Amino acid sequence: MAPTGATPEAPEKTTAPRTTVPFDERVSTVTAAAHRMRHHALNMGEAQGQGYIGQALGVMDVLAAAYRDQLRYRPEDPDWEGRDRFLLSIGHYAIALYAALAEAGIVEVAELADYGADESRLPMSGMASYTPGMEISGGSLGHGLPIAVGMALGLRHTGNPALVYNLLSDGELEEGSTWEAAMSASFHKLGNLVALVDINGLQADGPTPTVLSAEPVEDKWRAFGWHVVRVDGNDVPALLRAFDALHGGPPDTPKALLCDTVVGKGVPMLEQRERAHFMRVDEHEWQIARDQLDGRNR
Predict the structure, then answer these.
(1) Tell me: the pLDDT tens digits for 119-150?
(2) Where is the Transketolase N-terminal domain (predicted)?
(3) Distances (CA, A) of 298 to 58, 267, 291
């Protein structure tokens, strides 16, 4: 079934950090972007009838803040050398990143209709060889931060001032490679590296706290020598203040923004769904989800 909901029209794209823009305007821009991106995710999810839609809805505020307020990029030239690099370690969050790339103008909104289709540039798990703006192929958890460390080192050696952002999950904090990379980043004083950690408390085997809790997460990152800020990742004003505080940290220290998010955020029906890691949504529920996102039929 083709999506029946229209996505709100996006304003002109921005391609540079907006720290000189009034704070209220930044909040408004990011909030509106996140809303559009959630619509994009629902429309893509409907094409498959299932997928990681809960995680996508939950992390959209973080991605909207990144792409509409923080990252430097050129929509018409995704491989521009001066761009900030955004690495999606959590490959199954690709549906969320595609929505962000569409909001950024790197991928056409119309192309989102091809999500998960044969020979599409938008496969269900992120593949750098297919998708413009996709820096790495996601998949095995715990591999994103090591790649980000190497990338940040390489940029510094060549004198490139670009930043490297790596989005990883709380489940990846159970991987030893993540902490080896964290230790290396601190040792090499990679102030050009930012880790964004989506803490939604859910993984394939169940609630993260019952599988293998990483708490106290802030203490662990600080013990590895990182400048750390923790925030409600679904509170846009708090999120933007957290980004500002993060970049105000020591210049030669890697930075970690720990974002507590809600799976299915914005759609109460999906927020309350018990089996939410890989979510199946009935055909008639997609329009209900869009209506709830827009504040109708809650």
Answers:
(1) 999 998 889 998 999 999 987 788 999 999 99
(2) 33-293
(3) 18, 8, 8
